[in-house]
């Protein structure tokens, strides 16, 4: 069942990325806060419904126990939301999904697994691709800034700088998934249900704090009932999170890189619905990153 849960997470988070991008506005400096509010709100609602339907008991102490993992995930996601304001989804998604390689390396270092040259080939492909795509982004930024004939759109003025956000996402999320592997798989510190409730209620608290900050401190009007794209993203994110904890708890070492390849689905959707266009060089580098992720996902089978 772990493979089915991993694939369902893959589909959910891949689709969520599409709506994250649609809900990101380069002209709205509070865009990432609004997305965070919607995700936390939906997760809080889901946690409550799930708890009552399954007859579970929620222990606030679980939130403290799971807080290191929750913090890593939430911080990484906020960085991801910021990056989407200034980057094409087709660029941001593969870079973010390099987190699977980070998790695999950490699990191998601290909990030795049977690793072959195929695993290392996948990790090298992903790492090289991330560095290469950063170089391409910087070169394009420099070319645009040197040209006086091109009017640079705001969301492309910070392309290389914005690339730091998905890179930070990949690193922090990778460490978070590694910690999750410890909590749910390697040491079994918590059950799947306890971890799910702890994480979703923690995110809900963050959402409440963000709403108070946005509405009463910054005086920004925000109606949760008019946030269609961000609501869709939040629902899909929550569905993916539900299946994710079960996949990670069953087989963290392989589930992590498989799930991280959801950028493939994101890119397909972005080409269909967002009409994003990339250069041939960018397509080539993205293909390398995706190939590395897929190799890691299939390494054990190969």
UniProtKB/TrEMBL annotation:
InterPro entries (alphabetical): EamA_dom, EmrE-like
Compartments, as annotated in UniProt: Endomembrane system
UniProt keyword Isomerase, yes or no: no
Pfam hit, one: EamA
GO cellular component: membrane
TM region positions: 32-53, 65-84, 117-135, 156-178, 198-217, 229-247, 253-274, 283-299
Keywords: Membrane, Transmembrane, Transmembrane helix
EamA domain ranges (all copies): 2-134, 201-296
Membrane topology value: Multi-pass membrane protein
Similarity section: Belongs to the EamA transporter family.
Record-given protein name: EamA domain-containing protein
